[in-house]
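Morning, I've got a small favour to ask if you have a moment. It would help a lot if you went through both lines with me. Thanks so much in advance, here it is.

***
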Amino acid sequence: MSTTPLEALPDLRVRASIFAALGDETRLRLVVALGGGGAMSIAQLTAGSAMTRQAVTKHLLVLAEAGLVHDVKVGRERLWQVEPAQVELARRSLEVIAKQWDHALLELKTAVEVPSAA
Protein backbone atom coordinates (compact mmCIF):
# COMPACT_ATOMS: atom_id res chain seq x y z
CA MET A 1 0.00 0.00 0.00
CA SER A 2 1.53 3.28 -1.09
CA THR A 3 0.61 6.54 0.60
CA THR A 4 1.52 10.08 -0.30
CA PRO A 5 3.60 11.72 2.41
CA LEU A 6 2.04 14.92 3.70
CA GLU A 7 5.20 16.81 2.72
CA ALA A 8 4.58 15.87 -0.92
CA LEU A 9 1.16 17.50 -0.97
CA PRO A 10 0.87 20.90 -2.64
CA ASP A 11 0.42 24.03 -0.54
CA LEU A 12 1.84 22.62 2.68
CA ARG A 13 2.22 26.17 4.05
CA VAL A 14 -1.48 26.83 3.37
CA ARG A 15 -2.42 23.60 5.12
CA ALA A 16 -0.26 24.52 8.11
CA SER A 17 -1.93 27.93 8.40
CA ILE A 18 -5.36 26.26 8.41
CA PHE A 19 -4.41 23.99 11.31
CA ALA A 20 -2.72 26.85 13.16
CA ALA A 21 -5.94 28.87 12.92
CA LEU A 22 -8.05 25.91 14.01
CA GLY A 23 -5.70 25.22 16.92
CA ASP A 24 -7.41 27.88 19.00
CA GLU A 25 -10.56 26.72 20.82
CA THR A 26 -12.44 29.97 20.19
CA ARG A 27 -11.70 29.93 16.48
CA LEU A 28 -12.67 26.28 16.22
CA ARG A 29 -15.98 27.09 17.92
CA LEU A 30 -16.58 29.91 15.44
CA VAL A 31 -15.96 27.60 12.48
CA VAL A 32 -18.34 25.03 13.97
CA ALA A 33 -21.01 27.71 14.55
CA LEU A 34 -20.64 29.06 11.03
CA GLY A 35 -20.59 25.59 9.52
CA GLY A 36 -23.88 24.69 11.12
CA GLY A 37 -25.70 27.98 10.86
CA GLY A 38 -24.79 29.47 7.51
CA ALA A 39 -23.76 33.10 7.26
CA MET A 40 -23.86 34.93 10.58
CA SER A 41 -23.20 38.42 11.84
CA ILE A 42 -20.78 39.18 14.64
CA ALA A 43 -23.80 40.04 16.81
CA GLN A 44 -25.20 36.57 16.18
CA LEU A 45 -21.83 34.96 16.90
CA THR A 46 -21.49 36.79 20.23
CA ALA A 47 -25.10 36.27 21.37
CA GLY A 48 -25.23 34.31 24.60
CA SER A 49 -21.48 34.41 25.15
CA ALA A 50 -19.16 36.52 27.26
CA MET A 51 -17.00 37.34 24.23
CA THR A 52 -16.93 40.88 22.98
CA ARG A 53 -17.59 41.73 19.36
CA GLN A 54 -14.03 43.00 19.14
CA ALA A 55 -12.63 39.64 20.32
CA VAL A 56 -14.79 37.69 17.86
CA THR A 57 -13.73 40.05 15.06
CA LYS A 58 -10.08 39.42 15.90
CA HIS A 59 -10.58 35.66 15.71
CA LEU A 60 -12.59 35.89 12.49
CA LEU A 61 -9.78 37.87 10.86
CA VAL A 62 -7.30 35.13 11.77
CA LEU A 63 -9.65 32.53 10.27
CA ALA A 64 -10.10 34.70 7.18
CA GLU A 65 -6.34 35.03 6.75
CA ALA A 66 -6.14 31.21 6.73
CA GLY A 67 -8.93 31.15 4.14
CA LEU A 68 -11.37 29.32 6.43
CA VAL A 69 -14.04 32.03 6.50
CA HIS A 70 -14.96 35.08 4.49
CA ASP A 71 -17.35 37.93 4.94
CA VAL A 72 -20.09 39.26 2.71
CA LYS A 73 -21.41 42.77 3.01
CA VAL A 74 -25.20 42.83 3.24
CA GLY A 75 -26.41 46.37 3.63
CA ARG A 76 -24.54 47.82 6.58
CA GLU A 77 -23.82 44.41 8.05
CA ARG A 78 -20.99 41.97 7.44
CA LEU A 79 -22.02 38.33 7.45
CA TRP A 80 -19.39 35.66 7.95
CA GLN A 81 -19.46 32.21 6.43
CA VAL A 82 -17.24 29.15 6.21
CA GLU A 83 -15.15 28.56 3.11
CA PRO A 84 -15.95 24.89 2.37
CA ALA A 85 -12.94 24.37 0.09
CA GLN A 86 -10.50 25.16 2.90
CA VAL A 87 -12.32 22.91 5.35
CA GLU A 88 -12.18 20.15 2.74
CA LEU A 89 -8.45 20.75 2.32
CA ALA A 90 -7.98 20.27 6.06
CA ARG A 91 -10.06 17.08 5.94
CA ARG A 92 -8.00 15.66 3.09
CA SER A 93 -4.79 16.49 4.96
CA LEU A 94 -6.01 14.57 7.99
CA GLU A 95 -7.01 11.69 5.73
CA VAL A 96 -3.45 11.48 4.36
CA ILE A 97 -2.05 11.46 7.89
CA ALA A 98 -4.53 8.75 8.94
CA LYS A 99 -3.55 6.57 5.98
CA GLN A 100 0.14 6.99 6.85
CA TRP A 101 -0.55 5.87 10.42
CA ASP A 102 -2.62 2.92 9.24
CA HIS A 103 0.22 1.88 6.94
CA ALA A 104 2.86 2.29 9.67
CA LEU A 105 0.79 0.31 12.18
CA LEU A 106 0.22 -2.49 9.66
CA GLU A 107 3.98 -2.69 9.03
CA LEU A 108 4.64 -2.78 12.77
CA LYS A 109 2.05 -5.50 13.28
CA THR A 110 3.58 -7.55 10.45
CA ALA A 111 7.07 -7.12 11.89
CA VAL A 112 6.20 -8.17 15.44
CA GLU A 113 3.82 -11.02 14.72
CA VAL A 114 5.46 -14.40 14.81
CA PRO A 115 3.97 -16.93 12.43
CA SER A 116 2.28 -19.63 14.48
CA ALA A 117 3.39 -23.21 14.03
CA ALA A 118 0.66 -25.38 12.60
User: Anything to note?
Assistant: Helices lie at 12-22, 25-37, 42-46, 53-65, 84-112. The mean pLDDT is 85. The chain has one domain: 9-112. The beta strands are 40-41, 69-74, 77-82.
